[in-house]
Design brief:
This protein has 300 residues and is of the alpha/beta class. It has a single domain, classed as 3-Layer(aba) Sandwich (Rossmann fold), CATH 3.40.50. Helix content is 35%, strand content 21%. The protein contains eleven helices and ten strands. An eight-stranded mixed sheet has the order 1-2-4-3-5-6-9-10, with helices on both faces. Strands 7-8 form a two-stranded antiparallel sheet. Helix 3 packs across helix 4.
Length: 300
């Protein structure tokens, strides 16, 4: 099915609906926000989950494209976007995010469920799909796998949670591009559209980033030894996945090596691998050729 056909199949151009679900954590309850596109009664649901410092509006282009055929749900993982911040930063870990997603899935009551996960969102997808009875039919892992190159984790950790301030959204777009150019080529309009949902008004005027700086606390506590232990557990989880799996990789990614990607095509769900040239970590699924790959995979 072509991208043009999907775009003409019923998306009326309306924006997403903001909803919330209550989730349990070690200190009580928190609200997780999610953005819903398409017919709310459609029981074929595609859940799209973002990366470490991002939020659910990253998927606007993909969701707008798919909303005529599916119900698209794009959570703001706790600590990001419109979701609550946790009282205890120790809760900013993938197993806790998986538990939140199980709560969300109970709310959605999907008849058919697919998952698109970028970076951290892919790790959450791996954790979910490894559970006995996991309901995911098709899984898209966007530039992430069981082995994460430690040098890339150190690069990301060097800026996560640092205080930043921008006078205007345009200044924010320029500042964020300095740490995000690996996402690949974007027009100024595309990048500004990806930047605006990342911002919230700062008390002193201007803007700051729309995430809890404490999400970087457990991330910066990672060592090569804990990363190796995490890798072993992630390979075990990956090997348990039953969902049909598509692996997208930026050909210049420093987080997901080509060797790891190739290994993922040979074990577990034996992912189908698609690479995009001149893109690092991670493809934003905004470019038409990236969107088309996801469209085709979900359509089967």
């Amino acid at each position: 099915m072509s991208l043009q056909t999907i775009m003409e199949s019923g998306d009326d151009g309306s924006g997403p609906r903001l909803k919330h679900v209550q989730c349990l954590d070690a200190k009580g309850l928190h609200r997780m926000a999610y953005w819903e596109w398409g017919d709310p009664d459609n029981d074929h649901v595609v859940v799209c989950v973002h990366g470490l410092t991002r939020q659910g509006r990253d998927f606007d282009t993909l969701a707008r494209t798919l909303a005529g055929r599916y119900r698209i749900v794009c959570p703001d993982v706790v600590g990001r976007g419109q979701s609550d911040w946790l009282a205890d930063p120790a809760g900013y870990l993938v197993p806790a995010y998986v538990a939140d997603m199980v709560t969300l899935l109970a709310r959605l009551d999907a008849g058919t469920l697919d998952w698109v996960g970028t970076s951290m969102g892919g790790l959450i997808g791996i954790g979910l799909c490894a559970l006995r009875g996991a309901p995911v039919r098709r899984l898209v892992l966007n530039d992430v796998g069981p082995r994460l190159e430690f040098s890339a984790l150190e690069r990301i950790g060097s800026y996560v949670g640092l205080p930043v301030h921008f006078e205007t959204p345009q200044a924010a777009a320029e500042g964020l591009w300095a740490v995000s150019s690996s996402f690949g080529a974007h027009t100024p309009e595309q990048w500004l559209a990806l930047t605006r949902p990342q911002l919230k008004p700062a008390p002193q005027g201007g803007f700051t980033l729309h995430y809890d700086p404490a999400i970087g606390v457990p991330f910066r506590q990672m060592t090569p030894e804990t990363a190796a232990l995490g890798e072993a557990l992630l390979w075990q989880a990956y090997d348990a996945i039953q969902a049909e799996t598509l692996l997208i990789r930026g050909a210049e990614s420093d987080l997901l090596s080509r060797a790891t990607a190739e290994a993922m095509t040979q074990r577990g769900p034996k992912a189908r691998l698609v690479e995009f040239a001149q893109v690092g970590h991670a493809p934003t699924l905004v470019a038409p050729e990236q969107v088309q790959v996801v469209v085709d995979f979900l359509a089967g």
